[in-house]
Design brief:
Blueprint: E1 6-9, H1 13-24, E2 32-35, H2 39-48, E3 53-55, H3 58-62, E4 66-69, H4 76-83, E5 92-95, H5 102-108, E6 115-118, E7 129-130, E8 133-135, H6 141-151, E9 155-156, H7 165-173, H8 175-192, H9 197-218, H10 235-254
Helix pairs in contact: 7-10, 8-9
Length: 255
Amino acid sequence: MKFQNIGFIGGGRICRIFLTALKNKGFSMQNISVYDCSRQACETIKTNFPEVKIESNLNDVATSNFVILAIHPQVMMETLESIKPFISSKTIILSLAPKITIEAMKTKLGGFSKIARCNPNATSIINEGFNPVCFSTELNTDEKEAILEFLKLLGKSPEVEESKLESYAVVSAMAPTYFWFLYDELYKISLSFGLSSDEAKDMLKNVIQASVDVYLEYGMDSYNLIPARPLKDSEEEIRNILRTNLTKVFDKLKN
């Protein structure tokens, strides 16, 4: 099956990431609509994706065949209450929000159960996302395959247990932010050492990806491959900072 129309509730950051990924793949935007209470968010969507229809009424998006909830957990329940009268047996809902379970959504929607949850990754913007997804037991094989086929446009979407989705949120969805500032500093240091911008970018792109592959193959033994280790004295402090802050975020999502 294919979705006849797709409606985004929420036109913010993650919606723009999805739309950019779809645009990269040449996906038709003519059957996509977006609702957001923020006028600025709507204007941004309209400017960057002129084929997408901006709806002023929530119900016009809620009647879509495939409804994507690109909203924060804090407003999820009131949004579900608002769309409840407009969804039908033909509707499929995909939630991009952490914390709110399928069962909680199902209860709020009066038993409606064609629901999936996805934990989207920012790297989807270049179609290289890692977006774990879980499904309600009421979704049939064709419906699940339709969701997976759609998410394939953004990158990889492994099916996972719902109980692990918040783990992926902390370790996967937020992961780029743990490294981007380091990449930025390495890039600036490279320039200060005399490399050109193109040379620095080419070097980082290749070395960082390869270093991940080497770590996954050799683990901590990877250190034996490099004689110098300039950050050795600071590593434990950095580990503690990472562990402490990520644990706080995880506990907040799970409780």
